[in-house]
Specification:
Helix content is 38%, strand content 20%. It is an alpha/beta fold.
Length: 755
Amino acid sequence: TSTVSVEPTFASPRLGLIGRIDLLMVSPSDPHDRTVIELKSGSAPKGERARASHHGQVVAYAMLLEQADPLRTGKNMVWYPAADALPFRDISVTVEDRRNVIQARNRIVMLERMIAQRDTALLNSIAGADPGSMPRFMQDDVRHLAMDIANLTSTERAYLRAWLSFIAREQQQQRQDLAKPMWTNTSEERRARPSAMTDLRLSPDGVDADHGHLRFMRLRPTDECSLRKGDIVLAYQVEPDGTADPSRRQLLKATIRSIAGDTVEISLRNKHVDLAALAEASEWVVEQDATEGGLRDLYGNMGLWLRSPADVRNVLTGSVRPRMLPPQVVHDHRLRDSQREIVAKALGARDWFLIQGPPGTGKTSSVIRALTSELLATDHERVLLLAFTNRAADEICGVIEREHGPEAYLRIGSKDTSGHGRSVHGLGATLDARQLSSLIASTRCVVSTIAAMTRNLDVLEHGGFTTTIVDEASQVVEPQIIGLLASTKRFILVGDECQLPAVIMQSQESLSVDVPPLRQLSLQSLGTSYFARLMECAVNHGWHDAVGRLTEQGRMHERIGSIASELWYGETLRPMLPWQTREQPWLEVDDAVVLDMCRDRAIRMHVPAHGGGPLDEAYVTAAVAARIDDAAKTSGADVSIGIITPFRTQINAIRTALSPMLRELITVDTVERYQGSERDVIIYSAAVASPADLDALSSVTTTVFGSIDRKLNVAVTRARQQFILIGDNDLLLGSGHYAALLRRLTPIPAENIVV
């Protein structure tokens, strides 16, 4: 007669705990009467008690429910369905039980802090541990782990400590940046967080019970928001008194399916939630999920590296020269000569090969396509294609479908984040386990994001991969990828260290590495991508046969491409296609002002930082976009426009200044969100109001081409036909990188547009 909730999630900041209960039974006559049932599929212990670890788990759930409802009554039980007698074991929750749970929780936090501080005692204690003193189900794992650590060299131990500390510090920073603000109660504090959407109401038809989807109306759609499609979020209700305390109710974990205008739709992870009861809530909050276990998966990745043979570890760390065979014959005649040469060298690599691909050089459409086709034409090859983002993974899927048909590959990933139907998740709905296992084992090409593959390592149990190709590799740090690469015979990394680096939450100071053996591996900062470190290793050691650089780009007009070539690529880039060298205005329109702008593909407009009215920078940016859009439509041209700006407040100001129609057509976003995209016209609103803002604009690093600004590179190279920089020139000249760019841009008075 009770209402049964399946896998509801509860959290408490006071206890420092979060947990998902298997079954929660609520009495229909008393809402405080809630019984916890923890389901255990294994064998039951003899007698009437539960196993100690199961007992502690149920105690923790009971404590979470007490925080949510201080008047809570009801039983706490462990359910052993395999037991012939007493399948349900009652758990009494004592003060000592509660104390033991908190002590265990604090012990875990202490160990995480030891890892973060690179404490050598921790690895030493594991290496010297006595497995016999531990529960039987852990003994083999501990014994193997101790042996693996004992077999490491001193350099490998330093490498392992450094990356374990990196993971632990990322976890700590994530909790500080995301989890801590979640517990603020006032609506003003919630609205100030860009990682949260507030003032949400369920749409009248917003409950899709069959698929577990909720669609909300955004009452404040212009509020600053950093959430995007595919992001993992938490949803929770606002209480009638206006407070939003997630510890008082169950948390809903979800993935954002879409954000469009004044609506947002989410897909619940738990499809068993009572959606009818949720519809009674009048107001909701959706915000980024800091409880997601993605960072914990990185420990498993390091474990795969740790368990690999010594010669594999040496190859992965760059301690030894990668082995090369002579370049292979490439049969794809659609490649340009420079592309064919690099593909041939990559296929000759026995261990690893790096391909630097500047913007528009055909990394995916030509090089990855050719590599995949050549490998699949060889019977013994099985290919794993990885990308950092779902967008890039879907692009790879599209290339393979066009080349080999939809049956040639499988996509790892959820249906909410993958844009392709050929996904293991989707096929699992129609195939039984045996059929799905057979399909995975027989498919010679698998595509996934790095994160999704790390969460689905059991795919590796259905047959190994001979070659792994990683796109967007310059955005990936070693713990994200090294375990997957340890499970393949060779790998090819495709990236560009001159574009955006990996996203790191912790401070730069904590990333510094001052260990001589690691510096010999070119590991001086844990914020450096694996691609960039191996590239530096290859350059420093003269392993030039392990590196290929693409130099012909087909995206940008020569005027824009030459700026990128001079500033960021050592004058190595050159145009690939005839249209890129045309000199006439790229857009023939009747609007004389727009026509004058189109005579030069790279221009700048000076707008004073504190100008008001028509010379407000957001207003000017929106006016330029509107003027180009109107002129193009009048002349019958189809022109795509993108607006990039570094600050979320400026994003909101520009969106507010745009007409509702242009708001739907033009993406206004940060340069990080634009990497991998392109538009005919890119308008870059610098939005610098003081010299201090210049730091936020920049991502400066040193490459073989010298000191470069990676963010500026990405902003400029998104443009196919025209790049327009809008900002206060006097302030921008305070940066040497912006000063170099400004010298190469043609000035156009902003007054021409807005007056």
